């Protein structure tokens, strides 16, 4: 197990009162037996997959866009937080932690040097007027324990974390977003490239004559850019789904701002969505790295396959160097590159292959 989580478990065991553990996108492989008495531990997460695995393990977990107001104020002796990738989230969580910590309660912050952990620790120390103990636990990682003494210092700049704002007017659409959403303050270049290929994709749709192209689902919808662009291609039923609570809030707001009817569903890779769709659009979360992250890629492709009506098709955009085709061939008979600008490629997936179990 990751050294940071080993340290967190030690901190839980050393504390006899209520504990709050903040969980975001970082993988957390815990077994309840490692934690001792779990009845005094509350988890809070903004990710559906994390909530599912924690609650399946019988642990208490709040799922929200890090809304700490729903938790007992000044109610925790210990708050544990492995810092997130985005600065606004980290500042928001530190500000919120100050509200839920008891006087003299401890905030434990951990993370990598390249993630700015030392700067976050300094800022939190000042904000909490804290006694600080900081320790290097590996080549890259640091952990700090801050004893909350309440100060009159202004809270950390969280870029108005809770506020939804209009980030852009694009093709007559009003795009509403907020910190905490993937690429929250811009239109993703890959997604814009996918939209450019939609007319060609629609021409090739091969639905039977009595099927009218009507329904579309956006898998990993973010703040809803792709989804809210779909009515211009004739879609009437709009569904978006994402794992991240911030994205769910923003995507609902984007639909509302454009007077669009649609459903936005919080789910892990569309798990639990039984409806079928004529089209799946997707800008998956795995295009940033240098390889196709195994399990997540398969899950997005499998979901796309499962969610389509027969004769339907999916359109994915990924970084040009991602070899998604080899995996996609396990799920679809037709895997065609619609466009490639050397940075991104847009792939059309059609002709569902039966699952192994159905063969
Ligand atoms: C590259 S972004 C695309 C966002 C949006 N479609 C756009 O065009 O701006 C990928 C999205 O996938 C979401 N995501 C990551 N893991 C997920 C999962 N397990 N299930 C559902 N969505 C997930 C992320 O929260 C993010 O919003």
Automatic annotation (TrEMBL):
Which keywords does UniProt give here? Cytoplasm, Methyltransferase, rRNA processing, S-adenosyl-L-methionine, Transferase
Query: Which domain of life does the protein's organism represent?
Result: Bacteria
Among Pfam families, the record links this protein to: MTS, MTS_N
Q: Does the keyword Lyase apply?
A: no
What are this entry's molecular-function GO terms?
Answer: nucleic acid binding; rRNA (guanine-N2-)-methyltransferase activity
Q: Matching InterPro entries, A to Z?
A: DNA_methylase_N6_adenine_CS (IPR002052), Mtase_sm_N (IPR013675), RsmC/RlmG (IPR046977), SAM-dependent_MTases_sf (IPR029063), Small_mtfrase_dom (IPR007848)
User: Where in this chain does the record put each Methyltransferase small N-terminal domain?
Assistant: 38-132
Q: Methyltransferase small domain: from which residue to which, for each copy?
A: 173-347
Output this protein's name.
Class I SAM-dependent methyltransferase
